[in-house]
Structure formats: structure tokens, C-alpha cells
Amino acid sequence: MNELVNKTTTSTEKLKDVINFSPLSTERINKAELYYNVRNIDRYDAIQLLHGQLQPQIGDVVLAKVLAIGQHQRIELGTRRRVDLNIGNEIMAL
Fold first, then answer.
1. Which long-range contacts (CB under 8 A, 24 or more apart) does 15-24 make?
2. What is the tens place of the pLDDT at every residue in 25-51?
3. 33 beta partners
4. What's the confidence (pLDDT) of residue 87?
5. Alpha-carbon separation of residue 7 from 17, 54, 75, 76 (angstroms)
6. Are the CB atoms for 85 and 72 separated by under 8 Å?
7. For the purposes of burial, counting CB atoms within 10 Å of the CB of 38, is it exposed (0-12), middle (13-18) or buried (19 or more)?
8. Is pTM, for the whole model, over 0.70?
9. CB neighbours (10 Å) of residue 32?
């Protein structure tokens, strides 16, 4: 058991060197559009952002900023309402 804890601690310490943590403001959470697949997640459970060389894993909630509009010009929100994507919008999605 102690070995597992030590390995986990060591892994976490290594991650701290690669990943930066910053608080996620309530204002930013309120402005973000919630994509349909996160409709059952409480948006206020998101309290911090992780920055760095990260690849989202299955089940991670991502706050993404729209940088360009391609084939998909609209998204479906958790309310089942379709909205147009605009450059600069932030979206929370799985």
C-alpha cells in the first residue's frame, strides 16, 4: 500500500512540473456554453484549469475556445437548443 502511495505521489509531483493550475472564475463558467454531453454535470464543480502538455482523457470535461469555424457551425446545448458557434466562444464538453 505504501508503495502505491509513494508512486502516486511521485507521479503527481512530476505532473506539477509539467502542468500549471489556475483558478476558474465564476464569470467564465457562466459565459461558457454547455454542450449537450455535459448536460448532467454541475458546471460549478469546475474550479480550476489545467494548462500544459495535456491530452484529455475519456470522461474529462474540457473548456475549449472556438478558434475557427469549420464544417460544424452549430452545437446543441444541454437544453437541446441549437446555437451558432462564434469565434471566441468557450464551450464545456466531454
1. 18/52, 18/53, 19/50, 19/51, 19/52, 19/53, 19/54, 20/50, 20/51, 20/52, 21/48, 21/49, 21/50, 21/51, 22/48, 22/49, 22/51, 23/47, 23/48, 23/49, 24/48, 24/49, 24/63
2. 888 888 888 887 777 888 787 777 887
3. 91
4. 93
5. 16, 20, 41, 41
6. yes
7. buried
8. no
9. 20
In this structure, the chain runs to a length of: 94
Q: Are 11 and 40 in contact (CB under 8 A)?
A: no
Cα distances from 15 to residues 3, 45, 82, in angstroms, run 18, 22, 38
Q: Grid coordinates 454535470 are at which residue?
A: 41
Largest CA distance in the chain: 51
Cβ atoms of 74 and 33 closer than 8 Å: no
